[in-house]
Amino acid sequence: MQMAERDQQAWLDQVQEEALEPGRDIVDPHHHLWHDFGVGQYLLEDLRRDTGAGHGVRKTMFMECSAEYDKEGPEHLRSVGETRFVAQIAAQSREGGSAGLPPIAGLVAHTDLRLPEDQLRESLAAHVEASQGLFRGIRHALSCPPDGVELMIAGGSSPGMAYEPEFQRGVQLLGKLGYTYDSWHYHTQMEEFLALAKAAPDTTMILDHFATPIGVGRFDGQREEIFAQWKTNMQTLAECPNVHLKLGGLAMPDNGWGWHERECPPTSDEFVQAQREWYLHAIDCFGAKRCMFESNFPVDRFSLSYNVYWNGCKKIVQDFSEADKSSLFNDTATRVYSLD
């Protein structure tokens, strides 16, 4: 079911929870904005509704989502339209102090990292100029769905892109210029991402969404087997000091929890019971200083509310030290994306 086919907000509103630790500072380093992307509109007023739900969200980061590209001009510069679109919304988010609501403090854009270096540098410079000071890096996702698996939110990358010399050179250039690289991909592609991380050791890399363990199609019913292999892969990946993790995006329909099909969405306790071990293993491997919570809204809004997500995260790490909590909710994202 697409969100546009039902009153998604009314569905989410069936679960009402008081925000835990409302005074805790949060940077949400991963959300999208669009007029219509198959999951309904999500613009500033929608983001404000969620970030204003009671948690102490102080800043947010936009993540590229192929929205609002320019329809004309050189192909390698068309994605700059998205950056221009977000910069305008970000300016609105800062107007008049926004009544205490968080500003959009940075953005990660998209360009094809396989471009010849002169075109890639031109594209990056255009993003920097259009961003009004918000540009932090690039996500050219590796997400290539496994053969024979029909996904609700399928990536469109080419197979084995991480191994291509042109792509590796593009990721390396990001590091040379001081920019970050984000990837979204599937649990079947962990070896590819590991090879890329080793090929670009001087580039700060961020793995989104736990590497999206798939739980549908031929992967339905294999969660324990996937979890066991994923744990080993994460331990190996953690040996690359340039890699950081975003902890979220595990409530997408393709993860296989089935929450989006229920009559009532999950509570934070249900969320914690289902996903706690994934979060704790990731933090155990990488440490709090290399991990950051992310909402992945509005995509995870298919399955749970913004308030429930953050309550769940706070419950998962309730026994952590204050320093580690600060890293996970605020400090890591602030440092990695230079959001001071």
Detailed description of the structure:
- This protein is an alpha/beta fold.
- The protein is 37% helix and 11% strand.
- Helix 8 crosses helix 9.
- The radius of gyration is 19 Å and the shape is globular.
Features of the shown structure:
340 residues, alpha/beta, eight-stranded parallel β-sheet
Q: How much helical structure, as a percent, in the residues?
A: 25-40%
The H-and-E topology, N to C, reads as HEHEHEHEHEHEHEHEHH
Strand content: 5-15%
- Biggest sheet record: 8 strands, parallel
Low-confidence stretches: none
| First-to-last CA distance | 39 Å
Q: What Rg is obtained from the alpha carbons, in whole angstroms?
A: 19 Å
Q: Give the neighbour order of strands across the main sheet.
A: 1-2-3-4-5-6-7-8
> Number of helical segments?
10
Query: What's the overall average pLDDT, rounded?
Result: 95
